């Protein structure tokens, strides 16, 4: 059975109540984030720590680096 993890994201300067579902591309785009912006990630569920670790590694990767 797949693990159920709920991940949220928000701008670091926004209040926690403004956290959005990080699995939705539309919600992510609506944040209007740019490279260098700081975000806060949250998670709940079995395996949430591992999911956050993986997501942090993805977000810290600069695929545009030469």
SS-based structural class? Answer: alpha+beta
Instruction: Give unreliable regions as ranges.
Output: none
The number of strands is 3
Instruction: Give the distance, in angstroms, between the N- and C-terminal Cα atoms.
Output: 40 Å
Q: In sequence order, what are the helices and strands, one letter per element?
A: EEHEH
Q: Can you tell me the number of structural domains? A: 1
Q: Helical amount among residues, as a percent range?
A: 25-40%
Major β-sheet strand ordering: 2-1-3
Indicate the overall shape: globular
CATH superfamily: HPr-like
Mean pLDDT: 87
State the CATH class: Alpha Beta
Summarize it:
The protein has 66 residues and is of the alpha+beta class.
Write the layout of secondary structure elements.
Layout: E1 5-11, E2 20-21, H1 25-30, E3 39-45, H2 48-60
Antiparallel strand pairs: 1-2, 1-3
Name a few traits of the molecule.
alpha+beta; 29% helix; three-stranded antiparallel beta sheet; globular; Histidine-containing Protein, Chain: A; 66 residues
What does the model show?
- Strands 2-1-3 form a 3-stranded antiparallel beta sheet, with helices on one face.
- It has 66 residues and is of the alpha+beta class.
- The chain contains 2 helices and 3 strands, in the order ββαβα.
- It has one domain: Histidine-containing Protein, Chain: A (2-Layer Sandwich), CATH 3.30.1340.10.
- The longest helix has 13 residues.
């Amino acid at each position: 059975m797949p693990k159920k993890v709920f991940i949220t994201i928000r701008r670091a300067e926004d209040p926690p109540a403004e956290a959005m579902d990080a699995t939705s591309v539309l919600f992510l785009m609506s944040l209007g984030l740019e490279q260098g912006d700081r975000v806060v990630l949250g998670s709940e569920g079995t395996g949430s720590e591992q999911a956050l670790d993986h997501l942090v590694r993805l977000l810290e990767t600069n695929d545009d680096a030469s």
